[in-house]
Amino acid sequence: MVEFSGLDELWLVVTPRSPFKPKQTLLADHHRYQMVVEATKDYPKLKPSKVEFDLPQPNYTINTLVHLEEKYAKGHQFSLIMGEDNLKGFHKWKNYEQILERHELYVYPRISGTSVPNLFEGHPKILKIDAPIMEISATFIRNQHKLGKNIRPMLPDPVWKYMDEMNFYRT
């Protein structure tokens, strides 16, 4: 996204608990954060962030954005990035209107069979990015690893090594 948009850098925020996912399906926060650290080591424009670790849970994106604005008021303008598939349900997010009032939303293309809600078509703050489509997900990687498939080529080497050392997603 950084290479195909006007963004200077991308902060990969690890969230301790998504309001949309059960906590028990996730690895411990520090492990997920460490995998992001490992994945971004060689990419100075990508910054791992655990800013949500100290926010009340479950956390909502609007709270994170407000926190970031307060903490980094000088020199930073924050935007939100999401896959096109997530844009379809964006109207269900807490205070999505406020997010769009104050922030740009960069949308990564996905191959999907449904269309974006009319509510967001042509919205001036929603920027669809022309980037190569990579149809791979963390869920796919976890599931294939559990099945004993060789997913190593799909991951940065340091992430693979950490995941293998810690014996993640095998059972």
CATH architecture: 3-Layer(aba) Sandwich
Largest sheet: 3 strands, parallel
Low-confidence stretches: none
Count of extended strands: 5
Helix content: 25-40%
The CATH homologous superfamily is termed HUPs
What number of domains?
A: 1
Q: State the end-to-end distance.
A: 33 Å
Structural class: alpha/beta
User: Rg from C-alpha positions?
Assistant: 17 Å
Counting H and I runs of at least 4 residues, what is the number of helices? 6
Describe the structure.
The model has no long low-confidence stretch (mean pLDDT 88). The protein has a single domain (10-135), classed as Rossmann fold (3-Layer(aba) Sandwich), CATH 3.40.50. The strands form 2 sheets. Strands 3-4-5 form a 3-stranded parallel beta sheet. A two-stranded parallel ribbon has the order 1-2. With 171 residues, it is an alpha/beta fold. It contains 6 helices and 5 strands; from the N terminus they run βαβαβααββαα. Helix 1 links the parallel strand 1 and strand 2 (46-49).
Q: What are the defining features of this structure?
A:
about 170 residues; alpha/beta; Rossmann fold; three-stranded parallel β-sheet; two-stranded parallel ribbon; about 30% helix; globular
